[in-house]
Automatic annotation (TrEMBL):
<feature type="transmembrane region" description="Helical">
    <location>
        <begin position="229"/>
        <end position="252"/>
    </location>
</feature>
<feature type="transmembrane region" description="Helical">
    <location>
        <begin position="155"/>
        <end position="172"/>
    </location>
</feature>
<keyword id="KW-1133">Transmembrane helix</keyword>
<feature type="transmembrane region" description="Helical">
    <location>
        <begin position="362"/>
        <end position="382"/>
    </location>
</feature>
<keyword id="KW-0472">Membrane</keyword>
<feature type="domain" description="Amino acid transporter transmembrane">
    <location>
        <begin position="256"/>
        <end position="419"/>
    </location>
</feature>
<feature type="transmembrane region" description="Helical">
    <location>
        <begin position="272"/>
        <end position="293"/>
    </location>
</feature>
<keyword id="KW-0812">Transmembrane</keyword>
<dbReference type="Pfam" id="PF01490">
    <property type="entry name" value="Aa_trans"/>
</dbReference>
<feature type="transmembrane region" description="Helical">
    <location>
        <begin position="184"/>
        <end position="208"/>
    </location>
</feature>
<dbReference type="GO" id="GO:0006865">
    <property type="term" value="P:amino acid transport"/>
</dbReference>
<protein>
    <recommendedName>
        <fullName>Amino acid transporter transmembrane domain-containing protein</fullName>
    </recommendedName>
</protein>
<dbReference type="GO" id="GO:0016020">
    <property type="term" value="C:membrane"/>
</dbReference>
<feature type="domain" description="Amino acid transporter transmembrane">
    <location>
        <begin position="27"/>
        <end position="253"/>
    </location>
</feature>
<dbReference type="InterPro" id="IPR013057">
    <property type="entry name" value="AA_transpt_TM"/>
</dbReference>
<keyword id="KW-0029">Amino-acid transport</keyword>
<feature type="transmembrane region" description="Helical">
    <location>
        <begin position="394"/>
        <end position="415"/>
    </location>
</feature>
Length: 424
């Protein structure tokens, strides 16, 4: 049941998982649910955790990882208690995050929740375009370094790879809905585990090679205190992006050499074929990951337009095409135009801001407090009828306020890093 809660509450904008009576449609299986969840859990955020920990040092880094894990664990329990309303055991199921907010907190905050959630999904798509292009570029660089040596000027651009990924996603986006992409999430889930274990193995091998665990308590040295603070703040934003995703243990490289992305920044050079394979796994994972976060937005917008324009042929008509040796293909003009424009826009933004760590930090900071902390806490207050100024009320208010401060700090540092990278 916990897996079911995770999937259905995650798919916040997709009320299509419920029938007209509010009962969940059994369109998926246990295995499809597990695949979707793993696809969500192990995202590109884990690749920046080595860099983030390097900025914070051996004390603040692990402590930050532990704190974010605790924050996420607590908020997940709070949210799970709001799966049914008004009673958490016998009440009516809330088949989406927005449903839970609307039932417990009203339409205004439900609208705000939907806005933030869909914005988060959209910006995650941008982050996935950036990550995929860096991984595809890294494969070429890895092969170049293997041929020419580690000091060779192996420089490659991002634009072509972003356009290639965007073209693939235009095609993949024609998958009708969230429940028709089980096979894609299964592949992506396998790829998630593969590149995560490769990253762990390479880090562990590097420790054995060095015969010592390198690093310092204060983290990476900088020219001045201000730069140190900006990088530390950005690191918190990056860690926030990696949560509520699973923690992956990454070994820290020497702190002045730790790459922003463990498998593309060339903290590792050999075996080059393993680096290539890991990056290829990331690319395959993000093909599915992009769809996992985009399908709820597609469903939300298309259902809204269907209700607003019930007689429009552009919105509602489907046309069937039969190609040789292939099953019939149903085409909808709204789906083609909107989803294509969506993919094109995420690709364009990624081309303007192709900065992996900075973009992840901004997205993580924007998303962490409101979606992972504020709404679960507020939902819990209403669901459990927690009175003001009670002990539990005070503790959860303090918990929410601390997370808000962390979000603000991470957002400031990440925006500063994004501006500096763009101007630089």
């Amino acid at each position: 049941m916990a897996v079911e809660h995770s999937l259905e509450l995650h798919n916040g904008s997709s009320s299509s998982s419920c029938d007209d009576d509010g009962h969940p449609r059994r369109t998926g299986t246990l295995w499809s649910c597990i695949a979707h969840t793993i696809n969500e859990v192990i995202g590109s955020g884990v690749l920046s955790l080595a860099w983030s920990t390097a900025q914070l040092g051996w004390i603040a880094g692990p402590v930050s990882l532990l704190c974010f894990a605790i924050f996420t664990y607590v908020s997940a329990f709070l949210l799970a208690d709001c799966y049914r309303s008004p009673d958490s055991i016998t009440g009516t199921r809330n088949c989406s995050y927005m449903d839970a907010v609307r039932v417990n907190l009203g339409k205004t905050r439900s609208w705000f929740c939907g806005l933030l959630q869909n914005l988060s999904f959209y910006l995650t798509g941008v982050a996935y375009v950036i990550t995929t292009s860096t991984c595809m570029r890294a494969i070429q660089k890895s092969n170049c370094y293997h041929r020419e040596g580690h000091e060779a000027p192996c420089a490659y651009g991002y634009t072509f790879y972003m356009l290639l990924f965007g073209a693939v996603q235009i095609v993949m986006s024609q998958i009708p809905n969230f429940h028709d992409m089980e096979w894609l999430s299964v592949i992506a889930a396998i790829m998630s585990f593969t590149y995560s274990f490769i990253g762990f193995g390479l880090g562990f091998a590097k420790v054995i090679e060095n015969e010592e665990i390198k690093g310092s308590i204060s983290g990476i040295p900088t020219a001045n205190t201000a730069d140190k603070l900006w990088l530390a703040f950005q690191a918190l934003g990056d860690i926030a992006f990696a949560y509520p995703y699973s923690i992956i243990l990454l070994e820290i490289q020497p702190l002045d050499l730790t790459p922003g992305n463990l498998l593309t920044g060339f903290g590792f050079y050999e075996p080059y074929w393993l680096i290539d394979f890991a990056n290829a796994c990331i690319v395959l994972h993000l093909v599915g990951g992009y769809q996992l976060y985009s399908q709820p937005v597609f469903g939300f917008v298309e259902r809204w337009l269907t209700r607003k324009y019930p007689t429009s042929g552009f919105v509602n008509n489907f046309y069937t095409f039969k190609l040789p040796s292939l099953p019939p293909l149903k085409i909808n003009l709204l789906r083609i135009t909107f989803r294509t424009a969506y993919v094109v826009s995420t690709t364009a933004i990624a081309m303007i801001f192709p900065y992996f760590n900075q973009v992840l930090g901004v997205l993580g900071a924007l998303n962490f407090w409101p979606m992972a902390i504020y709404f679960p806490v507020e939902l819990y207050f209403v669901q459990k009828k927690i009175g003001a100024w009670t002990k539990k009320w005070i503790v959860l208010r303090i918990f929410s306020f601390i997370c808000l401060l962390v979000t603000i700090i991470g957002l400031i540092g990440s925006i500063e890093g994004l501006i500096s990278a763009k101007l630089g």
